[in-house]
Amino acid sequence: MKLKKKKNSWYNYFKEIFKKKATFFLLIFITYNIFLLVAFSIIIYVKYPTKFENILIKTNYYIHGTYLKFRYFLKPISVPQLSFDIKHKNFQKLRFKRYEALNSSMYYNRNYPRLIKKDSDWVPAKLNYQNNDYKINLRLKGRASDHWHGENHWSFNVKLKGDETFLGMKYFSLQHPKTRGYLNEWLLHKFLRYNNLIYLRYDFVNLSINGKEKQLYALEEGMGKRLLENNQLKEGPILKLNGDHHWFWGGFGIIDIDYTNTDIVAYKKNKIKKSSLLSSQFLQARNNLELFRQGKLSASDIFDIYSLSRFMAIIDLFGHHHANSIDNLKFYYNPITSKLEPIGYDNQAILSLSVQNLWGSSKYTINNGKSKWRLDLLKDREFFALYINALETISKKEYLEQFFEDIEFELVQKEMILLLNSMQISEVGSVNFKNILFQNQRYIRDVLMKDKKMIQVYFSSYNSQKNILTLNVLNTFRFPIKIKRLTGLPIKSELTEVLLSNSLESPFNYKKIDIQLEKNIILDDNIKNNLKLQFSIMGGSKLFESSIDTWPFKKTVDDKDITTKISPIKNLPFLQINEKLKEINFKKGSWNLKNNLIIPKGYTFKVFSDTKINLLNNAFILSYSPLKFIGSTNKPVRITSTDQSGQGLIVLNAEKRSILNYVIFEGLKSVNQDDWNLTGVVTFYESDVIISNCQFINSNAEDALNVVRSKVKLNNSGFKDSRSDAFDGDFVQAEVSDCVFVNNGNDAVDFSGSQINMKKVEIVNAGDKAISAGENTVVSGDSIFIKDSGIGIASKDSSNVKLEKVNMYNVDLGITTYQKKSEFSYATVSVDNFKVENVKKNILIENGCRVFIDGIEVMEFSNNVKKDMYGKKYGKQTIK
Fold first, then answer.
1. Do the Cβ atoms of 397 and 438 come closer than 8 Å?
2. Does residue 170 fall inside a structural domain?
3. Where are the alpha helices (DSSP H) in 195-320?
4. Is the C or the N end of the chain the one with fewer CB within 10 Å?
5. 41 in the same domain as 168
6. Structural domains counted in the chain
7. 638 and 529 in one domain?
8. Are residues 767 and 838 in the same domain?
9. Residue 502 near residue 480 (C-beta atoms within 8 A)
């Protein structure tokens, strides 16, 4: 036993020695290899920095790609499966069109194939999706050959026949994801939506043509009414500047485009020609755009400069100025504001800003026939200030971080779809474009926020008798500069009105600035040396500072005195303007207005009790400022029209909430002037409002009250004898309580894309619908009384109405649900405590829709309910 014990102890001893040495040598081996790797990396980094960076990038791509594939393995992603069925002769027509394009050229000196599209190119086909067939027309898409050069991956324009829609769209295109930069275009539209700008629906689908193997395509929404409705906008013309002739003539093609000699055209021109309203809107929009490029109107006159400036800033962030080029940019004419809004489209790439610089900068490198478009916009100082402000906002790091956090799940899905369709991670991965976007943010912040030499300031003279200091100032920076104040001396007022010439147009234009100092100032050399001029980039928030060169600058160029235009409202006898309080007060009494009254932004417009405003000669009141119309029970504010021509009240883009209390609107109609046509006697657009104790009487318009994209509270108010609808709300959040609607030609309340709460509402004699909910509207409420009306409650197009305590008396049709527009789905109505008396038909439900009464679903269904509406069997034809 002792010998065995001794043997085991020696064995364990040598075993421990071996383990320690093995561990030691293993550590030496690992350390040695790490040392070699670090040394090799340092050598590569020092001698070949570009190669080193490429190795890191490829490693990052590999890790990211492996991660995406692993995620897909854990949870596969479904991609919409589409197929085209194209008859042989029609497919041959497409093939011949491609052959023609491949054998043409837009350049004399080298081959550059291009596609010339014609209306005769369309061919019929069938689209199949989820076992549903859609009748379509399609044609080849894309001017340049990247859309159709490949034998089996062509791009198509698609439009559905009749009233059908596909995924809510009437028009769309399909193309290889590469033609739009893989994920780049998808990301742009996500970011446009994030910024509340018009965006296109954009996704990735698999497409099979005539039974061939499916291939991945990018699906991109086309221009049309559904695009606008999806963005919660009213229908209006969509315009573009058409440069087709530059592709036809065979010269220098798109390089030769000059926006002054392009045609202003509309999408869906045949539809516009058939509608007098759309035609007049298009003519107004085209005329405005024409006058703009002739220099007769400014950018702020015709564009929604808030959305346009933000759009330009976003394109700056993405670095590739393609979507904001005039031959790519589309415009929506907003019929309410009479302004053009940008529709982003075809930006393709995400590039470093260091390549092209900021779009609004004088250092911007692209100059050709399209440059005048850019310069014409930048001349408008209000637009430019908003553009700089938008750049500041989107260049905040947390702004982009929050955006990517919001879309992270969807972004990973799209990356996986592209990666698993044999597309390179280096091209489709988010690693690269995220880095570029964050770099572009830093670039913008550096330009706007870092201290740098931006102006030259020279001492010119000092008039001691008049106490006037004169300086000569030159803007050497890439943006316009706004002088704020002088430090080192007491001055009478800040210099906020002094604006330097834009270096973009006059790079060496010295401006003479006179500064009024306080009395008895002795200006010696010591004081001069300590003077500083403070300024900001026009529209920017950061205050910069420059010292003053005391050596006089002799070669000055004197500017003409700038005179301020006096606003017409300052001379009107019925207005009192308090600039200190920023109030415009309407004097009490009875007043006749024979001309339009336009209240500028930046004030509060007040009208008090015992005031009567008589709108004559087609006059209207338009305010860009919030209202405070405050009457009383015995002395309300009255807005009428004794000659029945008065065109009501409009509030546009007011920054604060308006209040109407004890106001009577009587005998008015809606705006119809110079092709500006509105539907409401009283209109609030993107302007929140509280309406209390008000009356809308004898309204001769499509809507007595029209509120769009706003929050509204309507209480203790009445609508009587409205020619058509009483209250029409589009994309609103509304509370309606203790209100009465009597004798309305069509609907009492009509909501689209809205969220509504109704309480204690009485509706009598509504010609069509008492309550109409459409286009994804949600209505809740209780205590609703409906009497002597065509239809009680109508819910359509994905809307949901949920009410309690509803009483109906003497109504043709109590409740109906149906689908009116193909881009929406089925509707629902739920009513608890529902009482009816003398109702001819209680409920009419379209197949797919649902109605619940006291929690129990009604199971009686009909087909195509829409055909019985609008006066055909129930209700009344719409009165425009």
1. yes
2. yes
3. 225-230, 244-248, 269-274, 276-293, 299-302, 305-318
4. N
5. no
6. 4
7. no
8. yes
9. yes
pLDDT, tens digit (0-9, with 9 covering 90-100), for 750-777? 999 999 999 999 999 999 999 999 999 9
- Among 34-38, 315-319, 408-412, the range with the most confident prediction by mean pLDDT is 315-319
Sequential DSSP letters for 668-706: -B--EETTEE-SEEEEEES--EEEES-EEES-BSSEEEE
pLDDT in tens, 263-314: 888 999 999 999 999 999 999 999 999 999 888 999 999 999 999 999 999 9
* DSSP character string of 810-821: EEEEEEEEE--S
pLDDT digits (tens, 9 = 90+) for 114-128: 777 888 889 999 999
Residue at 781 is within a domain: yes
Contact indicator for 232, 198 with CB cutoff of 8 Å: no
- Per-residue tokens: 314: 């976003």
Burial of 214: CB neighbours in 10 Å, binned 0-12, 13-18, 19+: middle
Q: What is the pLDDT of residue 450?
A: 83
- SS3 category, 54: helix
Can you list the alpha helix ranges (DSSP code H) found in 502-573?
Answer: 525-529
Q: For 685-694, what is each residue's pLDDT tens digit? A: 999 999 999 9
Written as six digits, the tokens of 179 are 């033609």
CA–CA separation, 334 and 353 (whole Å): 32
Do 529 and 613 belong to one domain?
A: no
**pTM higher than 0.85:** no
Mean pLDDT of 47-64: 52
What SS3 class is residue 643?
coil
Domain match, 96 and 68 both: no
Find the distance separating the first CA and the last CA of the chain, reported in whole Å: 114
Query: Residue 2 corresponds to which amino acid?
Result: K
How much of the chain is in helix, strand and coil states, percent to nearest 5?
Answer: 30, 35, 35
Spatial distance between the Cα atoms of 217 and 211, rounded to a whole number of angstroms:
16
Is the confidence at residue 594, as pLDDT, over 50? yes
For 418, half-sphere exposure in the C-beta direction (CA atoms, 13 angstrom radius) is 27
Report, as an integer, the average pLDDT of 384-399: 93
Strand partners of residue 785: 762, 807
Instruction: Assess whether 652 and 789 both reside in one domain.
Output: yes
Q: Which of 344, 201, 198, 330 is nearest to 266 (CA)?
A: 330
Instruction: Answer yes or no: are the C-beta atoms of 237 and 281 closer than 8 Å.
Output: yes
In Å, what is the CA distance from 540 to each residue of 391, 437, 483? 9, 21, 12
Q: Which residue has the higher pLDDT, 535 or 780?
A: 780
Q: 233, 259, 288 — which closes off a domain?
A: 233
Average pLDDT, the chain: 83
Question: Token digits for 503?
Answer: 């270096």
Residue 281, in any domain of the structure: no
The answer to whether 822 and 799 have CB atoms below 8 angstroms apart is no
Place of tokens 């330097």: 500
Query: 254-276, pLDDT tens digit by residue?
Result: 445 566 778 888 999 999 999 99
Which one, of 612, 26, 709, 869, lies nearest residue 341 by Cα?
Answer: 709
**Total Cβ atoms within 10 A of residue 124:** 12
Q: What is the pLDDT of residue 758?
A: 97
Element (H, E) at 779: strand 778-796
Shared domain check, 830 and 787: yes
> Of 202, 233, 264, which marks where a domain is finished?
233
Confidence check: pLDDT of 7 > 90: no
Least confident of 220-229, 455-464, 488-497, 866-875: 488-497
Spatial separation of the C-alpha atoms in residues 197 and 186, rounded to whole Å: 14
Q: In the 8-state DSSP scheme, what is residue 709?
A: S
User: What SS3 class is residue 497?
Assistant: coil
Answer for the pair 168, 153: CB distance below 8 angstroms, yes or no.
no
Domain interval for residue 594? 575-868
Same domain, 533 and 638: no
Pairing type for strands 532-537 and 755-766 reads unpaired
Is the pLDDT at 250 greater than 60? The verdict is no
**Predicted pLDDT of residue 6:** 46
